[in-house]
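Give me structure tokens for this 355-residue protein.
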Amino acid sequence: TAYEIMPSLVGSEMCIRDRVCLDGSPEQVGRVFGRINAPDIRREVEQFYAAVETEEGIKRDELLRAGEYYRHLVERYAPHWLEEAQAAAQAAGVDAEEFLTYQGAKYRGINRPECFTYFSAPQHNADHVTLFHKNRDNMQRPQSAYVKGIQASSGPIYRFLAIGDTTDLGTMMGVNEKGLAAAADTGYDEPHPRLQGMMNTDLMRIIFERAADVDEAVAWLKEFHAHRVYAGGNKVGTNWMFADRRGRAIRVYQFHEKEMVVTRDEEGLMVMRDEDKRGVFVLKTLRSYHGKITAALHNRLSRREPVLSSSNASALTAVIPPDHTELFTYAHVALYRAASTFYACLLYTSPSPRD
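Here you go.
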């Protein structure tokens, strides 16, 4: 199954009856996440280290030493993740250091080129909200969708709604309580790969937790770029897209050594790659529905070729109102191949009001 509901959870780990709650301290959130996903975490972590040793000749101790720089970056940018990861690992029954290193290393060699993201601004949409969609394409693993809110001593952290593998602390796509949506797709060929640093899944979660709009999101990317924090896949860069409650969108093509290519939306419509056959198809369709675009249309496009790929693993359409985003933002989520499952509505409203 894509996710599990555990009504047996009680006390401070539960916000509403019969709902898994990921609001609380890093330890509380990690413990719940690790417990409900324990079988997947144990299996994937063990398979990951076995595959690295078999296919690349790198033993566990060597990989753990290589992961020390990743831990340093986590301590610098998101220290609360260390408590979350330790609690998740303990609840799942895996070694905490192995689990943290796995988080930093798992996406360096399994990126796929088919992911695709698109956006439409309020002036094009029937309900005058911002719409943002991503089809995620990757290895077929169980998927999870959730709203996570960490209360940490390191400073204010925004709640966010996201999709990822059931073993991921990082995010693949989503939207935060300020109405900032983000996605990262596999980019163009990377001429100068950098194997040290944080993958875009980690950078995206930092942006969700710290940025309120597209300008702040790009500022964070520039910070990561300047300090050589970013590490993409072995042979590819990253294509980013951000949208916010004001109906603005920005696309960023990021490499390791070259300058980032930043494009701001001018039409109120944006796709990840203009020249791609998917981009041509999506833009043509969205333009033909001017003033009548809905989340349902974004979802329908996700189920049609060429947008739909055989490697599609999940999909998300974020619906972002112009005001009170912490109450009224929500998303349609598909936790399997979009054409083979349904879209469920995941509400963003906090189960217990927070200041």
